[in-house]
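Dear colleagues,

I hope this message finds you well. In preparation for our joint manuscript, I am sending the Competence protein A (Stieleria magnilauensis) sequence together with its predicted structure, so that both groups work from identical material. I would be grateful if you could confirm receipt.
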Amino acid sequence: MTSNQSLTSQIRPSVKQRAPAMTFWRRSRQFTQNGTAYIGIDIGEQNVRVATLRSSNRPSDEHAWVNRHQFALPTDRDQEMTPQWLQGVLTAIKQRLPRCIEGETNVAAIALPIAWTHYQTVVGNDIPQIRQRCSEMFGQSVFQSAAHLCHWPVVGVHHGHPCGDDQYVIAATAERTACQVTDIASVNGYNVQSILPHGVALAHAAESLTGIDAQAVLWLSHASVLIAVRHQTGVGLTRTLPSLPEQILESDQPDRPLDAHALRPYLSDIATEFKATARYAARADMGGVSGKPILIAGPLAEIQGVDEIIATLTETPVAIWSYSGAQRPTPLAKHLDRDVEFVRRLDSSYAGALSLAWAAARCSSRGYGR
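The corresponding structure tokens are as follows:
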């Protein structure tokens, strides 16, 4: 498939009497499963993380985590978002994304930064109008592009097939930027099957990759915070939460990194937002507030004590996102005998990349989520 082919998924103009389809960016090509590597490319606001899963010979592990890679993007903390800055970010991805070995099959799923994605909860019948508004918003932004939307019902199909009167989560991103990133990856040898929202990837892969049946996944990073609620049939209510205040960010120095004590006032706000989200999701799902744990992931989740503070403030069990498979990349595996807790905390920053790799393994010619 050449890089100039259209990637746009067609979304039905009306959702009356039926649920809007989950439509994601996708490459429609079949791949052989033998010797295939599944790659998750997690583009963050300041870093790109890449994780590779391969089929495992172990009966208990469907896939093994065999490789990880990370590189920084040219984005400062107080970066002014301009077209020149955006082009610089794309150039950095083009230059630093690992190239695939010729002849190998590398199936990939990609996520654009959470800060580049607009999440909103809307009534299904309003989705065509929301799509137009999002295109106007992205057209007037640094992205100068139409928007691409994907959407899913807040309440899963275990309560029946949703219709246009039900509530949906929409995730909108810049169509042009999504195409540019996909083309960069394709030139580097990746067979890009999907560009997915972080919330979808994290929620769908959570139990399979961690072994924990969590009620929600909470992504915590310096630049963005996201919560994705899980239900019986997949991902439900998903929303962004307030990011770190500037006064806390300014205290993060190379010789004095952030600690749990400095983060506690901010985590109190996040806990309040979580409890409100959990209550809303429980009402929508026609049930009580879940007693299942919260999975926390991302760079801030690695900080010692953050999990205990969130557990205390939310009065909910908290687990740090940790890969449950038996195989990790060699540098991490060497540390396992010395400090298991240290390695498990490091896993959390790769939660997005690993979840995307897991999604890539489930892509088909019809895309992901079909």
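For the figure legend, we might mention the following. The chain is about 30% helix and 25% strand. Confidence is low (pLDDT under 50) at residues 1-34.

With kind regards,
E.M.
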